[in-house]
Amino acid sequence: MTLEASESERPGAHPADSAPVELSVQDLHAYYGESHVLHGMSFDVPRGEVVTLLGRNGAGKTTCLKCIMGLLRQRKGSIRFSGTELIGMQPHRIARLGLGFCPEERGIYASMTAEENLLLPPKIQEGGMSVEEIYRLFPNLKERAKSQGTKLSGGEQQMLAIGRILRTGAKTLLLDEPTEGLAPVIVRQIGDIIKRLRASGYTIVLVEQNFQFASTVADRHYIVEDGKVMEMIPNADLHANMDKLREYLAV
Amino acid sequence: MIFDLLGVPPQALLGQLLLGLINGSFYALLSLGLALIFGMLNIINFAHGALYMMGAFVSWMLLTYLGIPFWPSLILAPLIVALFGMALERTMLSKLYHLDHLYGLLLTFGLALIIEGAFRTMYGVSGRVYPIPEILRGGTNLGFMFLPNYRAFVVVVALFVCLGVWFFIERTRIGSYLRAGTENPELLQAFGINVPRMITLTYGLGVGLAALTGVLAAPIYQVHPLMGFHMIIVVFAVVVIGGLGSMLGAIVTGLLLGVVEGFTRVFYPEASATVVFIIMAIVLLLRPQGLFGKR
Ligand SMILES: Nc1ncnc2c1ncn2[C@@H]1O[C@H](COP(=O)(O)OP(=O)(O)O)[C@@H](O)[C@H]1O
Ligand SMILES: [Mg+2]
C-alpha cells in the first residue's frame, strides 16, 4: 500500500498536481477474439479529479472502461486501482474495491421498476448515499419510482444509471457517455451532478465525445485515438488546444 | 348434475381431477426448475428427468441401505442430488456458456443417457416400491369422494414449494439478483455480485426441485430408472406451452395441463396421453412464444 502510494507520487510523474493517483492504466492492450483494439493505452486518474477520455467513435474508450471493470478478459498491461492490480481479477471482485460502473447503454433492467433498479446493486462500502439523497439529487426518479425501468425517458434512465451506483459506496465512478443523445437541459443537469459529486470527493472517469460539455466539468482530458492515449490536456489549456482537439474529434 | 348429464359419475371425475392435480404439481415443480435454469444458464436442461429419477432413487437407497425414512429424505435426497448437479455444472456445463444453446442441450442429453444408463445397469428395469410414510397412509372420506392422504399431501407440498420459490425470486434481495442475472449478468457482476457462483447455486436449486419431485413421486409411481424419461417429455411440452423463462408461467401451466390431462382421461381416455402435445402444437401455431412468454 505505502509502496504503491510512493510509486505514484514519484517526483516528476505528475508535475502539475500533488493528489495521489487513484487509478493508473499502463500499457493496456485489449483484444476481442483476434482483433487487437487497445494498443498500449496509458493514463493516470488522480484522486478527487474528473478526468475525461475524449475520442471519436470506435477509438476504444468503452473498451478501456470494460477492461478496468474486468468485463473484457482478454487484456494485458497494468491497471492499478488504489494500489491493487486489476488485471486477472474477476469483475465482482474489482467492483467491491470501490468502483462504480455506468455503461454506455445504461443497462436499466426491464424486468424491474425504477426503484428496484435503484436498489439492485449491493452496498460495497460505507458512505454511500441514501435513497432519499439520491431522490433529492434526481427528483424525477422519485416520481417514476414505480414505473418499469425501461419505460423511463432517456434522460431519466441515465439519471437512474448514475443514481444506482451512488448508493453502493463506490467512490470512483466510470461514466460512459452519460450525455449521449440527451436534450441540452438534461445534459446541463447531469453536468451539475458531476460537479457536485466532484465537490464531495468522488473520482470520476468520464468518457465523452462532446468536448464542450467535457470542458465544463473536467480537470483534465486524455485524447484517445486508435486504442492509444495521444495527449493529456489540462482543462485550463483546453482553449489553447482547440484546433488540435477539433482535428482529433472531427468525423 | 352437469357430470351426470355427460354420463360421468362425479366420483370418477373428482378422482381424475385429483390425479391430474398431482401430475400437474409434478409438472409445475419440474418446469419451474427448468425455467430457473434456462433463465440463468441459458441451457435447456435435458438431464432434468434423470435428476428427478435420481431424487426418487436416492430417497429409496437412503431407506433401503441406511434405513433413513421419508421425512429426512425429503430434505436429504434433494440436497445430495443438488450437490451432484452443482458438481456437473462446475466441471462441465460452465465450459459451454459462451457457445450456442445447442451444445448445452447436447451435453445435458448425454448426461441424462449416462445417468439413466448407470441406474439401469445397477438396478435393472424393474420398478421398486417406496412405501407411503405411516402417518400419510389411508385416506379421508370427503362425502363426495375418497381422498388418499398422501396424494393430498403431495399437492399441498408442491404448491407451497412453488409459491415459496416464486416469493424468493420476486420478493427477496437474492431473488432480485437472480432476475437481474437472467437479463444482464455482465452488468450485475460489475456491480459486485459473484455471478458464476450464483449460476452454480441456481443450477443446484433447479436440480434440487427436480429431485424433490422425485422423492414425492416415489411412493406414488414406482422407483424406476426410466421414470424421468417418460416424465420429461411431457414437461418439455409444458414448458413450450407456458413459454420458457416465466416462473409463474411454469407453475400455472404445469398445474393446468395436469388437470386438463385428468379431464381428458375421463371424457376421452384415448387422447389422454397426447392431449398435452396437441395443445403444444396449437400454442406453437397461435402463440409461438408460449402462453406466458414475451416477444
Ligand atoms: N464486441 C466487440 N467485438 C469486436 N470488436 C469490437 C467489439 N466492441 C467494440 N469493438 C471494436 O473495438 C473498437 C473500439 O470500440 P469502442 O471501445 O466501443 O470505442 P468507443 O467507445 O471509443 O466508441 C472499435 O473498432 C470497435 O469496432
Ligand atoms: Mg463507446
Would you write up a description of this structure?
The complex is a heterodimer of chains A (251) and B (295). With 251 residues, chain A is of the alpha/beta class. Chain A has a domain of 136 residues: P-loop containing nucleotide triphosphate hydrolases (Rossmann fold, 3-Layer(aba) Sandwich), CATH 3.40.50.300. In chain A, 33% of the residues lie in helices and 26% in strands. In chain A, the strands form two sheets. Chain A has a six-stranded mixed beta sheet, sandwiched between helices. A four-stranded antiparallel beta sheet of chain A has the order 2-1-4-5. Chain B has a single domain, classed as ABC transporter involved in vitamin B12 uptake, BtuC. Chain B is built from twelve helices and two strands; from the N terminus they run H-H-H-H-H-E-E-H-H-H-H-H-H-H. In chain B, strands 1-2 form a two-stranded antiparallel sheet. In chain B, helix 3 packs across helix 4 and helix 3 crosses helix 9. The longest helix of chain B has 32 residues. The radius of gyration of chain B is 19 Å and the shape is globular. The N and C termini of chain B lie far apart (43 Å). Classes of the chains: A alpha/beta (251), B mainly alpha (295). At the A-B interface, helix 3 of A face helix 7 and helix 8 of B.
Tell me roughly what share of residues is in helical segments of chain B.
over 70%
Rg of chain B, nearest Å: 19 Å
Distance between the termini of chain B: 43 Å
List the helices and strands of chain A in order: HEEEHEEHEHHHHEHEHEEH
First-to-last CA distance of chain A: 43 Å
Cα shape of chain B: globular
Characterize the main sheet of chain A.
Answer: 6 strands, mixed
- Ligand catalogue: adenosine-5'-diphosphate, magnesium ion
| Spans of at least 5 consecutive residues with low confidence of chain B | none
Strand content of chain A: 25-35%
How would you name the CATH homologous superfamily of the domain at 20-98 and 171-178 and 203-251 in chain A?
P-loop containing nucleotide triphosphate hydrolases
Tally of helical runs of chain B:
12
Helix coverage percent of residues of chain A?
Answer: 25-40%
Per CATH, the class of the domain at 20-98 and 171-178 and 203-251 in chain A reads: Alpha Beta
